[in-house]
Amino acid sequence: MLRNLPKTYTVLVIEDERPLVQVIQAKLEKSGFEVVTARTVDQGLHYMEDVGSIDVVWLDHYLLGEKTGLDFVAKLKGPDSKWKDIPIFVVSNTASSTNMQSYLRLGVNVYSVKAEHRLDEITADIRKFLDKPKEDKK
Fold this sequence. Notes:
By secondary structure, this protein is an alpha/beta fold. It contains 5 helices and 5 strands. It has a 5-stranded parallel sheet with strand order 2-1-3-4-5, sandwiched between helices. The chain is globular and about 35 Å long.
C-alpha cells in the first residue's frame, strides 16, 4: 500500500542571527522541507537566481547590510519580477504597524511577530498555505 507523502517544498530562510537560523532550519527540515539559508538581501536574491526552485520565503525584517526585508520584498514582488508569485512569510521581532502595512501592501502573504508565534505554528502555517489549491492562495 502506497502512502501519500507530503510534497517536498524548498524554503529560503533569510535571517541574520546564526543561532536562530540553525533552529529554524532544523524545525523546517524536521517538518519535511528542503531549506536554503541567507543572511542578507543580496545573498537571498542570489539564491533565488541560482537555486531556481524556491517555493516560499521565510524573511526577517532586520538583516545584515544596508538593505532590509522590505528591499527584498520590493524586488521579489515588483511588476516585472519572475518571482512575484512566490509566497513570503515575514517573521520579525518588530510589530510596528508601519512595517506591517508596508509589507502587506507590497504583497507578503503573512506577517508574524516572533514573540507571538512558536516555530512549529509558523512551520505548520507555511505547510497549510503551500498545500492549498492554487486558486485558494490569493
